[in-house]
Each structure stands twice: as C-alpha cells, then as structure tokens.
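Input for the complex:
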Amino acid sequence: MNDNPPPVLEMRNIVKRFPGVLANDHVNLKLHPGEVLALLGENGAGKSTLMNVLVGLYRPEEGEVYARGEQVDIGSPNDAAALGIGMVHQNFKLVPTMTVAENVILGMNGLPFRPNMDEIVECIREIARHYNMPVDPKAYIWQLSVGEQQRVEILKLIYRGAEILILDEPTAVLTPQEARDLNRVLQVMIDEGKSAIFITHKMDEVMAFSDRVCVLQHGRVVATKYTAETNPQELATLMVGREVLFRLDKAPSQPGDPMLEMRDVHAKNNKGLPALQGISFTIRRGEVLGIAGVAGNGQRELAEVVTGLRPVTQGHIQIEGQERTNRQPLDFIKAGVSHIPADRIGMGAVGNMPVSDNISMKGYRQSPMAEKGILRPRQMLRFAREMIKRFEIATPTPATRIKFLSGGNIQKAILAREIDACKGLLVAVYPSRGLDVGATEAVRRRILEQREQGRAVLLISEDLDELFSVADRIAVLYEGRVMGVVPAEEASIDQLGLMMAGSPAEEIDVPTARVMEEV
Amino acid sequence: MRRIVFEKRESMSRRASTLVPIISLLASLLLGGLLLAISGANPFVTYYEMFRGAFGTWNRFTETLVKAIPLMLTGLSVAIAFKMRFWNIGAEGQLTLGGVAAAGVALFWAQSLPGWTLLPLALLAGCVAGALWAGIPAVLKAYLSVDETLTTLMLNYVAILYSEHLYYVAWRAPGYNSGTATFTEAAWLPRITGRVHAGIYLAIILAVVLWFVFKRTRWGFELQIIGENPTAARYLGINIAQNVVLAILLSGAISGLAGATEVLGLARRLQQGLSVGYGYTAIIVAWMAQLNPLAIIGVAILMASLLVGGDQIQMRMGLPAAMGLVLQGLILIPMLAGMIFMEYRLRIIDPHTTGMEVEA
Ligand SMILES: Nc1ncnc2c1ncn2[C@@H]1O[C@H](COP(=O)(O)OP(=O)(O)OP(=O)(O)O)[C@@H](O)[C@H]1O
Ligand SMILES: [Mg+2]
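Predicted:
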C-alpha cells in the first residue's frame, strides 16, 4: 500500500464503551484524500458509534484522532465542522416544523444575530443546482419525503463546507432511484476532491461506489481491503463470521382461504389528497403478496389502511370474510393483523422504555403476561429473553432502554414482537431496511415461515430482489392504483420497471406477463 | 485552552435522577440564604429557626403534616396528569370545587341521610366535583385538541370565585360575615393527632395504589406508552383519547379529594382559606419527586415544612411570612435547571489530556 499523500483522517486505537458493551475495541482507520471508504459490519458492530466519535458526539475512552496529519481533539459537532467533517445520521436530525433553509443554518457557529435568509436561500438554491439535487429551501421539513429530507441533510453538509463526509446508511431509507441519484451526487463531490466514509449494508453499493472497505465485527476491525480485490461473498463472510446464503429456498405456495380482501379502496394522504384510488386485491392464507413501486405511490397509506390506522373514504376491507372497513386499530390487532411499520423509531418503538417492555407491547393484553389487568413482569421478561435469543437482538440487558440499541437491533425487536403476535395477516413494510446481510436473510426466512404456517403476508418493499425471493405474487402500485399483479416467478425486472413507471400490465407486450385473473 | 462543554449523556444515570433534586434543593437554599442576607437577616439563624418552626416540637411537626396532606394529594393528582403530558395546572380549582361539593353534602344532606353515610358521601362528592372540573379540559383536549394549560388555569378562577360567592353570600351562616355553619359531627373527618386528620391515610394509601397502577397494571402500562409516544400508542391499538380522559378524571378526583379532606377535616365548614395555593405548589412537589408517587409523600412533607417554617420566622424574627413562599419558589428554578443534567453532563476539555469528566 502506498500511503502518501498523508491520510486526511486517521483514527488510532479508538476504544468506546457503553454500559455492558464494548462498542469500539481499539479501532484503527484511515481515510485518504479523494477516497470513498465503505464501513461494513453487522447490526451493533459499532459503526455508528465510531462515526459519532469522529463528529464529537461521543468521547472515546482511549485513542487519538488525526486530521491531515495533526492530532485533534473533537469535543462537539462544531469542532468537527471546523475541521471540515460533517455527518448525515442514520436517523435524520431535522426539525419538522422549520423550513429547509432554517434547518440548514440551525446550530451553526458564527451566524449574525439576524441571518439574512434571502441570501441563505439563494445560496442553498445555488448548491442544489450545482449538484442537481432539487430541493425547495422554503419548504417545511414535514412536507418533504424521506428522500428529500436526505437531500436536505446533504445540503447542510455542503453549505457548512464539509470536506470529509460521513454518511450513516444513507440509502437505507431511499428508493433504488433515489439511491442512484445520491450516489451520483456523491461522485461529483469526490471528483471535487472531497472524501467520504459510507456505511451501508448493501453489497452492490459497496462494490459500485467505494475504493476501500473496512469491516467491523463486534467493535473490532477484522479486515481492510481494496474494493477491487474483494467480492460480496467474501465481505459477507468477513462480516458475519460465517457464510451467508443470498438465495432462499421457497416451497411452492399452497394458498388457502382468503385472509385479506380489499375492494375498491380509496383513501387520502396526510395532506388530504387522494393517495389510494380504487385498490382491489385478495391475499390468501399461505401466500405472500409483494407490493412494488416507487416510494410515495401509496405504499404508506396502503399499510395504514389495512391496519386500521387510516380511514377509508370509499370501498371495503374484509379480514377472513369479516367486514373491517374503518374499524379501530385494536379490532385489526384482535383479528390477527401484525404490522412492521416503516417508521420504527417514531411508530414502532417507545424509545424511553426498556427493550423487554417494547417486545411485550403486543402480548401484554393477555395471559401469561397479564392476569385480570395486572401485569406479570416476570413473564414479560421471560418472553423478552426468549425473543432476544430467537431473533439475535444485541442488547446489553433486557432492561436497557430501546433507544440505546443500534438501528438494526431496534428493527429486530419490532420484528420479534410483530412476527410472534401474528395470527392471520402480517403487514411488513420495508422489513429488512437497515438490517445486515445475515439479519436480512433471517427476516426473509421468518416471513416465509409465516407463510408456511398458513398466514397471509403483505410485503411492501423497495428491494426487487426481496420481492422476487419472498413474494408469490407481485402487485405494482402507481399513483394509488394497482397496475397489475404478476406471479413472482414469471415477473421480470423490465416488466416491473415499466409498470412502476405507470404502464398497466395488459399493455406490456411481454409473453411472460400473464395477468392473474383474480386481482 | 480549557473549555467546559455540555455533552449529551449516553445513558440516563439513575444516580443523576436522585442527586439532581437534592442538589437543586441545596442550591435553592443557598440562593435563599443570599436573599435573606440581603434583607438583613442572618441566613443560618433563619434556617435554624425555620427548621425548629417546622420540626422543633411535636406540635409543630403535626402542623407541618397538616399542610403536607393537601400537598400530597394534589401532588399525586398533578403527577398523573404530567405523566400523560397533560399540563394540568388546574389542581387548585379542582381542590376548591371538591371542597365546595363536600361542604354542600355535609350541609344540606345531613337531615335526609343516615349519619354514617354522610362522611363517605361528602368525600365522594368532592372526588366527583374535582373529576368533572378536570374532565372539561380533558375532553376538550382529547377530542378537540384545545390547549389544556389555558383551560385548566382559567377554570381555577371560575371555581375560586364561585366558592367565594357561596361562603360570602349564598351559603353564609346567619350572624357571620363569611363562612357557612359548622357541619354536623357525623360529617367530620376524624383526627389522628393534633389537627392531623385521616386524610393522611388516604394520601399514603393512594400513593401506594398509584405506584402499583403505574408499575404493575395493564392500564398503567398503556398510560406510560401514551405519555412517551402517542403515535406508537395508536399503532399498538391503545385508545388514546379515552385513556387520557380517564386518567385526567382520576387526577381531578384526587385534587377534589384534597379539597374535601381540607374542609371536612380542618375547618369543618366552608370558609375563606380553602384556596391557598396548594394546587400550584403541587406542581413543584410533583416535579421534585420526579412524578414518583411514593417520593411525593416525602417531598410534600418537605415543602410543607417550608410553609410552616416560613410562618414561624415571621413570628420570631419579624421577617415577612412571604419569605417562606419566596424560598419555595426558589426551589423550582434550580430544579428546572437541574433537569438539564439528567440528559446532559458537563465536561471540562483540556486538549493536553484526554479530557476529564465532571459528573453533575
Ligand atoms: N448511547 C448508547 N448507550 C448505550 N449503548 C449504546 C449506545 N449507542 C450504541 N450502543 C451500543 O453499542 C453497540 C454498537 O452500536 P452502533 O449503533 O454503533 O451499531 P451499528 O454498527 O451502527 O449498527 P446498525 O447497523 O444496526 O446501525 C450496540 O450494542 C449498541 O447497543
Ligand atoms: Mg448504526
């Protein structure tokens, strides 16, 4: 290896402990100028922690950081910004009730008492134009899609003059199209001489965009490789410590009675505009219906409608033949519907409560966890321990507040609760988002297990691989309508792509595109 | 160069959450001491006198307990509401109306009811009145999203003015300038020692029951989830509006009970001096106790001792009795400032060493 010019950033022997865990164990890491370094590792391996040390959010117990060859002391994000280091966090840190421009300057040092907003807005527009990232600086954050919020986070870094970009799972919440756009922007920045550390669980992104890869396992660096000299299989094995199967064995489906029937369902989105416009389909027991589509075409509303969280303005929803249109969420839960929501921190978990309580938040209503309205903490704990083991949730203790777990492990806790509680229908929205390859494989296997046990699954996913390997049929959602439903084994990427862009299945002249009779 | 920075705590420390209230108390005593020194009193002597005033003799200690009882009850009431992030500052009005309702039963039903039912019914009437008074803002908030801080505060004035109308005009006993006739003995809440009445048992039992409800019951679990993350609560199938209203009814009932025990246990008639601000002091009590029902009992006694001690220094040292109130108010400021230290800590950064940490 040729180490000149000197690394822009170097971490030596970084040790960071949390109560009960050694998150970083003598980590050494170098970032060269103009380089993209991918940071890989299982959920809870310590990636986010290491990066938080770099931006001054955590203070390591041991070790030193060098920037451009000089030892530095980074005590706060403002120190990091002064050194040109900026980070996009795994969970965005934007204020929803403020505008894009306000968020960009929020917390910056050295602003005048009354910043000139017009100038700032113009400057943001300029940056957005330069990098070809359409964002309206005057829009409020709550009006933006997740992809747009991501752009705001990146604008924020550029505006503050970051030369070293740290991106913590930036593509986990993006659609494949948005992910490609992001990577294009990143490429422009690298060409301008910036460097980046990029955390991801997606192997194809590692292969396509990084120059080097650093693999963390249980807080230790187990390998550093040039991307050109490695391959996804090897990286996965390094990460997990065993071989990972990328393909699942799927038994042929044996559909039973109809579980969920949607007939001409209409619903509005949060802004009051039509989001679902006449959705009809049936899912039978023992069957997985996949929903493909570009994000924002009604996926979120669809999931909320079939779990009772969003009112239906027209049409009918039946579960096991029972009318459930516009019933309360509890009625859906009692009918055996489980829901893995897209927003795990905001909806799926209660951050300030222990992991064990969070895992018990579905089962607490019945025996053995409660008798006559009185909780039985011992039973709750026993159940939580069992789930922690079965789903391999990395947590120091069951009593740890769930917000202190790594992103992927919070997701695993929600999965454990929902899959265990599922009695009839599992609504899974981006279930493997943020999970490492090993956990992704495990989740897909669990979903198939549910199908084998005669449950119906509605799988909403942006990952076509996931849909192909798990779903029996794939429905494509476009502007709140189903463009068509195709059997997974007959579907092709091109055909789905066309449908996702708005061509109904019938019009696509592909011999394999046989539309299912019952839509 | 050395710098001091705030750093977010990576995990909430148990030690901090017990130390902060204690340190805040000391800080406020220090501030109060300064204030005393400025107004020309020797702080040490004053504090000593205050302590003696509140705990010095058995008699005075019982007086401290007398004032602690309504603080315990309203403190519990406020804590329930605050756990739901329902900013109930209407405990004062709920207490007043509870007292009014209890007095109404004791005055007007004494003839028509068997004697032994009078006391329980009067207490119950106090609870119901308090619950209804809290129920109005609760329903407005749960179903129409009307801000509760304003409504609960406004309703205080309505309740207090109404009670004044009653004891000055409508219910005034003949021959008095103000105040109703004394209740028949059947409606008196028994006293235990000195003027300490059985309300103290009710407060302690309620504290234990509430602790159990929040820690160990399904309902308490649901309330906790609603308070922490309403979006998650809805997703988990918990009926938020209904549960919030129920919890606030309970909160109001306990404040109403406080008023009822004051009227039935102390004055034994409705008169001026029912509303003396317990419902506001309760907010300090609840926060200092970190909304923990069991801790509220102890904190209420502490706050009551400041009240009683304050009265004493007035008599002995010629200081205004308001001094006690000022000292109480002073507790809240370091307390709120102290809250920051439960989420953050101070760190002194010295670039030449790895940086040392100062627990705060
Ligand atoms: N603030 C904290 N308090 C206590 N423990 C923590 C805290 N932050 C992280 N941890 C623990 O440190 C370990 C590493 O967490 P980290 O978030 O760095 O993982 P990660 O590699 O980013 O995982 P993921 O891919 O799931 O995001 C985990 O076991 C986690 O539970
Ligand atoms: Mg992470």
